[in-house]
Specification:
Chains B, D: Belongs to the 3-oxoacid CoA-transferase subunit A family. The complex is a heterotetramer, with 2 copies of chain A (about 230 residues) and 2 copies of chain B (about 230 residues). Chain A is α/β, with parallel strands linked by helices. Chain A has one domain (about 5-220): Glutaconate Coenzyme A-transferase (3-Layer(aba) Sandwich), CATH 3.40.1080. In chain A, about 20% of the residues lie in helices and about 25% in strands. In chain A, strands 4-3-2-1-5-8-10-11-12-13 form a 10-stranded mixed beta sheet. A 3-stranded mixed beta sheet of chain A has the order 7-6-9, with no helix packed on it. In chain A, strand 11 (about 190-195) and strand 12 (about 195-200) form a beta hairpin. The longest helix of chain A has 11 residues, at about 15-25. Chain A is globular and about 50 Å long. Chain B has about 230 residues and is of the alpha/beta class. Chain B has a domain at about 10-105 and about 150-200: 3-Layer(aba) Sandwich (Glutaconate Coenzyme A-transferase), CATH 3.40.1080. Chain B is built from 6 helices and 14 strands. In chain B, the strands form 3 sheets. Chain B has an 8-stranded parallel beta sheet with strand order 1-14-12-9-2-3-4-5, sandwiched between helices. In chain B, helix 5 (about 100-115) packs across helix 6 (about 175-185). The longest helix of chain B is centred in the middle third of the chain and has 13 residues, at about 100-115. Chain B is globular, with a radius of gyration of 17 Å. The chains are: A alpha/beta (about 230), B alpha/beta (about 230).
């Protein structure tokens, strides 16, 4: 464990920006990455300028730069959230079928998504609350969920009303099956796979306390502190 | 052969009631707003529209929906912060929605243009959007069967056209334009500039003129208008 | 019937160049056309410079110009027969999947192919003699046969040994089913469709004599001279 | 990340026995001759090769086949006036041939790169090449089911690469390169010129660097060598 990780672990639950920093540090240099709309966009703020990480946006671009401001704004150059962005040297544009072929074909290294729920088996629910009065809208969520070599989820571990979002099986409509390999939350980083949920790191808590808050999900302590 | 016409109203004059129309754009980037406004003026109704979204604000596709001209929309992401025209029609039961994951939508359009009978995609397997659909395990992975999409017309916004109808696009406004142009029986394109034949390097043509039936030059249509939030 | 057609009809069987000219005159101005390798390439020589006909080559180009000579030769610019060609203003290059999507998707107006046999129902055999010692090679033949809005065949009506090539059903391995709409030969132009074989035009012969030489194929006289 | 290496031998050093290799080119246009020659020198054997043809003359793919390194070839047009190396191996029963119509070959490679499970194509229906294959009638037309093709490696010849591995091609030498680059686990590209990052306009990139693992600059490799007849 690095000094910084030890500090984070002792200090209590992380802020969302701190979670974004943990995710950013786990992205290897030179990776091709898609950051989902919402919370995951914060990860971009924590990527080192020399990381060589190349950002993909589903609407047809590799080499996406930071959000555009002032004179940089060009409404033909937007991200998946329809926010004006910039273009980095070495960028490339392509049409939508090519963009999603790139995702579906497993060419992206990492996709970081938000979630309503993640199951112990890696199922993801992040597109639809399932409420009958909701107008459903899926966008690229299902393609993103299973397209990348690894799908990371970044979410709060509990809802505002205190319900766990890491669950034995999802009750919200699914986005994809067995597609999530890691879950980053304010209290812990979970590694999913081979039917196990391993706790890699905790923040201001411990595996026993986490286990008490996550009924039906069997945690394996992989913090190296057990 | 590509025809060049003088204004958007002439460009869409052939679009009658009850036809299907693919409309390019991701939000407002690449949305052929002037062609859609002409379609609103034309009075064509009972349309089936294919677009990624279901309109933003009060112009373009939103205006077409607001005017009650769209019977059915096939899209991936109708609900947005500024999709109030669609929202109202949907809640009133006045518009039919076929929701398709975005990558499957793009691939179905491509398959339509490429003469394929359908394909197996992993996207959507095991979800609500694949309920009742044919599935198959191939090489240990699960797939859902998707049919191709074609349309009577496509409305596309590109950047430049040459005299042969070859097109280039601009940045992320490219999005659905190139595949939609291949999948419609009649493709109508608005461009910011028409250049003489030979004015586009053959290496950088994105949509060859074979896919382009009608072009209208609208110098003022560039760049895309601003839009609200996500 | 035009004066030229009347002259051709009276003069006896056409040469291959004359057949190519008949095909060329039947291609409407502004058509997108693929000319198969072999005999059909002759059609290009008879297209008027102002015809606006755009030639497609399966190896990724629209706007193909005439064969290249001398300094024009560039071995990165070849046709489907792997002969160096030239590029016309307004040409476009694309990759192989896009090129065949264009064909398969029905975007070409006309494809002109050679043939071993054509059946009365429009089946085409032009890729394989079926001899057991033959190394089979199909190339783009099957894609071309059914890709265009109309497939024209240009062939001799009889083999060197006198066997008819317009037959009740093909004995050679098929390239495609019910895909041929016209057959241009040295003795006649045949229109196929709706289960009929209509003779549009004869060259130095008549429908009765043609019928005698084509057993099992029921000809309908559409020459306007019946 | 794209790696840049000094010579073709280093570029192909990872290709071992028994792997599958897609090789770009239509005849000699776009054929990465120098990479193939390096593969001959490497001694790798028992290869499955995907190419449109089966070699021309005595260089490149023809030399690889002639050296007895290819166990199986998947192609559309093996028999040519100058395919004597393939012809001899085939008649001797020393090479396996899987013959695929050219458009189905290109589409299968694209499907492999695009993560699809397979597709229905009209091409080949009712012919020898569809015997024993699954067929389906969709919308009144007959189709044959085709599976995707992927490979361990792809060898591609492009024109320029930038520092990110983005590629452009030259004229009809583009052919199979762009789809093969997407369908291999490791794509190795020879280019006539490497330019600095930013040296290729993002609008004209044909193959984005995400599909390119290894690049070697071979200024002398351009243009394609002459070849015999058809």
């Amino acid at each position: 464990m690095t000094d910084e990780a030890a500090t984070l672990s002792a200090a209590g639950p992380l802020t969302r920006d701190e979670v974004a920093r943990v995710v950013a540090r786990d992205i290897p240099s030179g990776s091709y990455v898609n950051l989902g709309i919402g919370l995951p966009t914060k990860v971009a703020n924590h990527l080192e300028p020399d990381s060589g990480v190349v950002l993909h946006t589903e609407n047809g671009m590799l080499g996406m730069g930071p959000e555009a401001h002032g004179d940089e704004v060009d409404h033909d150059l937007i991200n998946a959230g329809k926010i004006p962005v910039t273009e980095l040297p070495g960028a490339a544009y392509f049409h939508h079928a090519d963009s999603f072929a790139m995702m579906r074909g497993g060419h992206l290294d990492i996709c970081v998504l938000g979630a309503y729920q993640v199951s112990a088996g890696g199922d993801l629910a992040n597109w639809h609350t399932g409420r009958p009065d909701d107008i459903p809208a899926v966008g690229g969520a299902m393609d993103l969920a299973l397209g990348a070599k690894q799908t990371f989820v970044m979410m709060d571990l509990f809802t505002r009303s205190g319900e766990p979002k890491l669950v034995p099986s999802c009750t919200y409509p699914l986005t994809g099956l067995a597609c999530v390999s890691r879950v980053y939350t304010e209290r812990a980083v979970f590694l999913l796979g081979d039917g196990q949920v391993r706790v890699r790191q905790t923040f201001g808590t411990n595996v026993a306390d986490l286990q008490a808050g996550l009924p039906g999900v069997e945690l394996v302590d992989a913090t190296g502190r057990a | 052969m590509t025809q060049f016409v003088a204004d958007p109203d002439e460009a869409v004059a052939g679009i009658g009631d009850g036809v299907s129309v693919m409309i390019g754009g991701f939000g407002t980037a690449g949305q052929p707003v002037e062609l859609i406004e002409a379609l609103v003026r034309s009075g064509a109704r009972d349309l089936t529209v294919v677009n990624n979204n279901a309109g933003n604000g009060d112009v373009g596709l939103a205006a077409l929906i607001g005017a009650g001209r769209v019977r059915k929309i096939i899209c991936s992401f109708p609900r947005q912060s500024d999709s109030h025209h669609f929202d109202a029609k949907y809640r009133a039961g006045e518009i039919e929605l076929e929701l398709v994951p975005q990558g499957n939508l793009a691939e179905r359009i491509r398959a339509g243009g490429a003469g394929l009978g359908g394909f197996f995609t992993p996207t959507g397997y095991g979800t609500l959007l694949a309920e009742g659909r044919e599935t198959r395990e191939i090489g240990g992975r699960h797939y859902v069967f998707e049919l191709p999409l074609t349309a009577d017309f496509a409305l596309v916004k590109a950047h430049r056209a040459d005299g042969m109808g070859n097109l280039t696009y601009r940045k992320t406004a490219r999005n659905f334009g190139p595949v939609m142009a291949t999948a419609a029986r009649h493709t109508i394109v608005q461009v910011a500039q028409v250049v003489p034949t030979g004015g586009i390097d053959p290496e950088v043509v994105v949509t060859p003129g074979i896919f382009v039936d009608t072009v209208v030059e609208l110098p003022s249509a560039q760049p895309a208008p601003e839009e609200d939030g996500q």
